Amino acid sequence: MRYDPAEFLARDDISRLQLSRLRTTCERAARSRLYARKFREHGVAPEDIKSLDDLRRLPFTTKQDLRESYPDGLNTVPADQMVRLHVSSGTTGTPTVVYHTASDVRWWSSLVARCMRMVGMTPADVFQNTTSYGLFTGGLGMHYGAELLGCMAIPMGAGNTQRQVKLIQDFKVTALHIIPSYALYLADYLARQGLDPRSLGLRIALVGAEPYSEETRRRLEDIFGFKAFNSYGLSEMNGPGVAFECREQNGMHLWEDAYLCEVIDPVTLEPARPGQVGELVLTTLCREGMPIVRYRTRDLTRVLPGPCPCGREHLRIDRITGRSDDLIIIKGVNIYPIQIEQVLMSLPEVGQNYLIELTREGHIDQIRVKAEVREEFFVEDMRALAALRERIAHRLRDEILVTPKVDLVEPNSLPKSEGKAVRVVDLRGKE
């Protein structure tokens, strides 16, 4: 893939391009059944968009809107112009569908390739994709980007860790796409096989698909010897390639030539204050087949202030700290699971796996944290384990303002998954 000049657009050029593409997006969206109705109900028309500030006149779009529009209520071109669709099912079981034209697929691939080039990947890299293919966008999305960049791409898919390792070794893989919980699982697997993770020769890991802490990133980099770059995407916005870290590893550049970004207070729906964490809202700017306007992602982040030393002027968002619907409320205190992970992954005695259990004693909700302890620290000295348990409980109390019950368990005793990890189990009302 040749150099993409949009990567280093100046701020004024970004704004002019966004306004032009926002107008086009609204014109396209108005052809769909959903937005024809929503625009009419909100008393707004595409020609009312005179400046980027007019974005706030447009209605929000929610996942429920996508479900209710199933199967094709957001489409703006005839079915014979669509070349692909991805489907995801929500907690209700009602699918959400995202359609792509050939132009949409090309745009998506170019954004992913841009991300990969930004972190230092070149056509000389051998890229292995350890995430699911099929309807999950992280498979084909990353694969097409790697091929466009010129890398040899290995479409391994998820699971089958023994084969993952063999392919990495045999074909001298240098770059991985991997979810953080599976990267921790892979580290444990290699340890059990007596293999040094650094001997694999990996130099770059593209990490995303679930929230993870800076402490987890540092741990992975220390174990494998690669550089781990945070990524962000969601199927409603194509998939991977919405935002990505550069080599500075200090916030993810959100590609503003393809997406308009807002951060709002999830309760008042008003713009968040500068630097305030809020809910990310995104508008597609380049999608033909199924444009989406002001989509409430439910993902929590903030816009980082100041320029990036890398020279790119596309705004940076902070790592995703969780989803607004991931919030745990215990004894009136708001807690996000990533806060607990930050503490656990900062402690050398704690292994790669943990579990948060929510229980109810009488009428009072309680939180219990089960953490695996590394083998070299899991000794029969009960006093040492008790001291470690107290230290973890104290550190967690300082972070989440609630004292959880802490259980220290043996290595490899908690449930493991080769897919996304289940970190929170709600047992309230089930005892």
Compose a concise summary of this entry:
With 431 residues, this protein is α/β, with parallel strands linked by helices. It has ten helices and 20 strands.
Describe this structure as you would to a colleague.
With 431 residues, the chain is of the alpha/beta class. It folds into two domains: 1-325, ANL, N-terminal domain (Rossmann fold), CATH 3.40.50; 327-426, GMP Synthetase, Chain A, domain 3 (2-Layer Sandwich). The protein has helices spanning 11-29, 33-41, 63-68, 102-118, 137-149, 161-170, 180-192, 214-224, 337-345, 382-400, and strands spanning 82-89, 95-101, 126-129, 152-154, 175-178, 204-207, 227-234, 239-245, 252-254, 259-264, 278-284, 295-301, 316-317, 322-323, 328-330, 333-335, 350-361, 364-373, 405-409, 424-426. The strands form five sheets. It has an eight-stranded mixed sheet with strand order 4-3-5-6-7-8-9-13, sandwiched between helices. Strands 10-11-12-14 form a four-stranded antiparallel sheet. Strands 19-18-17-20 form a four-stranded mixed sheet. β8 (239-245) and β9 form a beta hairpin. α7 (180-192) runs parallel beside α8 (214-224) and α9 packs across α10 (382-400). The radius of gyration is 23 Å and the shape is globular. 41% of the residues are buried. The mean pLDDT is 91.
